[in-house]
Fold this sequence. Notes:
The protein is of the alpha/beta class.
Amino acid sequence: MGYKDVYAAWKADPEAFWMQAAEPIDWDRKPSKALFDKGDHMYEWFADGMVNTCWNAVDRHVEAGRGEQTAIIHDSPITHSKREITYVELRNRVATLAGALRAKGIEKGDRVIIYMPMIPEALEAMLACARIGAIHSVVFGGFAANELAVRIDDARPKAIIAASCGLEPGRVVHYKPLLDGAIDQATHKPDFCVIFQREQEVARLVEGRDVNWHGFQYGVEPAECVPVEGNHPAYILYTSGTTGQPKGVVRHTAGHLVALNWTMKNVYNVNPGEVFWAASDVGWVVGHSYITYAPLIHGNTTIVFEGKPVGTPDAGTFWRVIAEHKVRSFFTAPTAFRAVKREDPKGELVGKYDLSHLRAVYLAGERADPDTITWAQRMLNVPVIDHWWQTETGYAIAANPLGIEELPVKLGSPSVPMPGYDVQILDEGGHPMKPGELGAIAIKLPLPPGTLPTLWNAEPRYRKSYLEHFPGYYETGDAGMIDEDGYLYIMARTDDVINVAGHRLSTGAMEEVLAAHTDVAECAVIGVSDALKGQVPMGFLCLNAGCNRPHDEVVRECVTLVREKIGPVAAFKLACVVDRLPKTRSGKILRGTMVSIADGKAYKTPATIDDPAILDEIKEALATLGYPEKAA
Length: 632
Ligand SMILES: CCC(=O)SCCNC(=O)CCNC(=O)[C@H](O)C(C)(C)COP(=O)(O)OP(=O)(O)OC[C@H]1O[C@@H](n2cnc3c(N)ncnc32)[C@H](O)[C@@H]1OP(=O)(O)O
């Protein structure tokens, strides 16, 4: 069957489609049906089934006689080390860790925060939680203590599992002081913390609260897999919203298993036993879905890569890893390829490696620009597939499903909707638009299995953020169009969320931090185009009347403040002081116009502007930062 047939089969009978997709999963009790309509646009999938994620990702492969297959390859050009863990080793390690967590009181439904770098122990911690029905919430290592504290207060974890440190090129990231700071700051306190001591930094443990990863596992009874209901939350993953309070995306167990397993063959075209590599971080949804869960559920070998596309040691690292570990399908963010292209535009390092096992490359996390795609196609000589999805969905909304059929690539488009997703372009009034017309991208409800059913402890916010604007649809927050052939094009966000190097960040959260500076009366943060990172944040600061401090001093403090409060990942390095911000007469800051000016794009002075002269002041301020950039 080709793509059109598969999509039509889903549309004709979604229930049958998903029940069939559920067949390869090992159920403790098979679900009686796929979709559970709870009314009022709330849905669950396979809710009355009983199942365990860890069993499906680990134990069943051992039971099936594949215990000696490598489950995880850790490749760290930063520590110059490589290590392989077989499925049987993984089962034993995870069962013991789960047993130790249980012995310290962790039970089904308890939350466990995981704050770890790119080491296999991060995956083991996730799987150990899944084994006993605990709900994990992984926090990305590039966030600061304050962001961790916010997540601790929202998830209210009984335990936190952390490493002593992370390793960035040329710098040790001191996780433990960040963790201690976050716990001090948070209102909720975990019962205990498990600390994995890395040899690069041994952290000081807090007596009575912290236990050592190895020590607390000593002599414990390994835990068996605990079957959970299909609608039991497997994890919570926080993502940026329009304010400083991140949204806790909930992932239910059964839909997650079924959908991810389906994607491995149909989208990524890998067979069990083959090597799959997603060069992302476990702290992002790509890491959850395609470093940890999907490859293991499907019986693949997954790679945990602790390095960067360039500088560890050079722009040939990706090719080395692909060659050495015989990677079949490779997944990365366009920004990573842009970094490689900048260092090695002619691909001289590509030729040094045998990439004959590589069948396809997948890009996501941000819009893939045509230059980057054509460069990668030329260098690697395999299909380079852009695909589009979100933290909320957990897997591809639109893709070129190579495992079903290789569709023609249209540059600038992540191709076509996947089964499960009825994607529509809507006008402001919620009416479907014609092919080629630009509008809001929405998905007709219900969303398919594995997508978010709600937000953690925040159902009203879930409804408001995603369901209310277009009744009967999920609002993606992206704008775009669908062409005559059904190909989707993602053009922009409809809110103030920006995408920096594939990291989704809230300008609202940065504004909250800047506004807390004692000299800042008012501020705005926008995302400006960046040749490498796609977008970077830029801040405009209005200082309090009477503040006579040198502007560059205040700017420096503001940059430091964002790094301290949100983290280095915000990449907030550009800011300037202005007298006033351009606003409409009703007081809305004209961020869109400011973005156009900074990007050197044509713009119309909005009819509702309060004082058009302020746009000239913004232009002058931008010039001091070198914007618009010459190349833009
Ligand atoms: C499809 C659904 C989704 O969208 S899920 C999200 C998908 N996105 C991704 O997978 C992210 C892709 N991007 C990347 O992997 C990185 O940005 C790549 C391309 C590797 C470049 O990394 P890097 O050179 O560190 O730049 P960056 O902009 O990411 O980092 C900015 C500053 O943050 C720091 N940082 C980064 N990661 C960590 C970490 N885990 N722990 C601590 N710090 C971290 C970087 O060191 C950098 O710091 P500095 O400002 O240079 O001092």
